[in-house]
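Good morning C.,

I know you're traveling, so I'll keep this short. The sequence:
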Amino acid sequence: MSTLPALAADTTSTALAIFAPDGRCLWCNLAGRRLRVGLGELPLGQVEPGESAVELPVQGADGATRWLQVRCQGVEHEGQPLRLYELRDVSAERQERDRGRNYRWRLAHIEQLAKVGTWEWDVQTGVVVWSDVLLQMFGLPPGTSLDYEAYRQMLYPDDVALIEQTLETALRTGGPFSYTHRMYLADRVTLRVFECYGEVFTDPTGVPVRVLGTAHDITATQRVQDELTRLAERDPLTDLPNRRALLARLDDLLAGPRERPGALLLIDIDNFKDINDVHGHAVGDDVLRLLARLLLRELPAGTVLGRLGGDEFAVVLPGAYAEDALTMAETLCNAAVRTPVPMAGTGLRVTLSIGAASLEPGDTRDTMLAHADLALYEAKNAGRNRARLYLPEQYRHAVQRVNVVTRVRKALDEHRMRLDAQPIIDLATGDVVSHELLIRLRDGEEPALSPAEFLPTVERDDLIGDLDRWVVATATAALAHPVAMAARMRFDINISARSLESPGFGDWVVRTLHAAGIEASRLGLEITETAAITNVAAVRHLAGTLRDAGCRLSLDDFGAGFGSFAYLKHLPFSTVKIAGDFVRQADHGGADPVLIDAIVRAAHGLGMRTVAESVEHAGLVPALRMLGVDSGQGYHLGRPIPLDELLSRDPDEWRSGSTVDIVHRAF
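The tokens, ready to paste straight into the viewer:
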């Protein structure tokens, strides 16, 4: 034990106190008295001489808790062992330490909540300190020592150069920086994506001394962004590039050197609407998915197949000449024919129509699409299941089609479309049983266009629906004319396949007749055999509406489309009009009379009347009567005359005029 020090020189700021073995405080210096605590009440017995300092909490007179750091040493005075205690108020220091610990605790929790880790790089020593949260994000235990080389091994190899280049630039220029990179976690299997931000700090001379940075795991966010990008550029049904992505690739082709070849294919599934209508949209979707896989297998590397929408696909062919594009298109057509779509043990055959266009000097994206679309139009017009290459004359034909449609639309708007009336004659009595109203374009422009020259074009345009409704409205108004009312005239009009498919067309016809006060039986609608057999459900719906109202429905050009007699059984027509191809030579024997006889027997057996078309000479009248044909129509029986002229005649004139005389002489 040391000897009791001299106590007179009491100038230290450290509190000193001497205690007897029985715990009595024998003396304390001025600093001890200033502690304002009862030294005798302190648990000083916990502190043994020679041990490390101990921090003890004490309750001050003001009620606040203070912390004293206590050391003890043994001393001796007059042979008596005593204890000398050194007491120092460390409350402020402890508060500072607690503040630091709380700060680190809060920082760690903030990092966990934000899923952001921090790191600090001492540029001079090369030491990197990683926060525990960041180490855990790397799949490492807290406190793991991780130098840069070990960290570099965890980085995705393709991203190392980006990181090092970014850091090198930041050290050279100073200031903040950022980068996104991939890295494998400690298991060397899991790949994550991190978004990093940092800042370089320099000394007063501008030399970098340390770098502070953050790292945020954005793997989930990146997946969402990647999925959104995929959805923005991929077709969800077929997983092919969508229209936007495909047109971007076409733009890339057009942006390249124009001396390099390239081509575009437009692909359309033939009669895809029928597949959806007959088999359902689920089967239609299966067809699209199967076709996408099939086309991908057939296309060479470097080409881009995409879905433009609906049943239309497109292929961008970099480096392909016109001949290559056509060959590839034909290959795709053949592949589709060879590969049936599985359906409940059977195979659905799907065919394609394809238009090809090669890249030419001065072409734009719209030009190439228009050229390929024109070629596709030619492929469909030629019978489908084939490919066609764009040729300049196709453009001229397209211009002609546009001009025809424009001209007809203008004539319709300016009330320069007309109707002619051709009589339909009862071959037994010679009476006119009805008139077929035939549309005419009389707009005074050259060249004059016959129905055969403008109707096929208009029928491929939405204008045909407006034209059909104009015919119905005009015919209804004519039936309400005093002459027509007095003579009980009946009219028959032709309607297009487009109107046939229009769900509300039949109801509109009935409403139009009722509004004009016309008996529905005075109006008959004619549908060609070709339109009828390709729209069976639509014909049934329309026929039901019209027959219920009292309208007549005729199957026109029967036999021209080589239709089956079975359609007569399932479609509720009131009249069958025999195609002129069977009628023109019916008085010369051969197969025509046999076929006409079969048609007549079938129609009469089903309660339908028959009308022979193209009765062009006198010898046909007795021949057709012998075969049982009910009525006839043709130039020999009566030429078409303007409807206005017909309505200007005396009500009885049209019944007993030259037309009827011709029939009686023919008998």
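Safe travels,
E.
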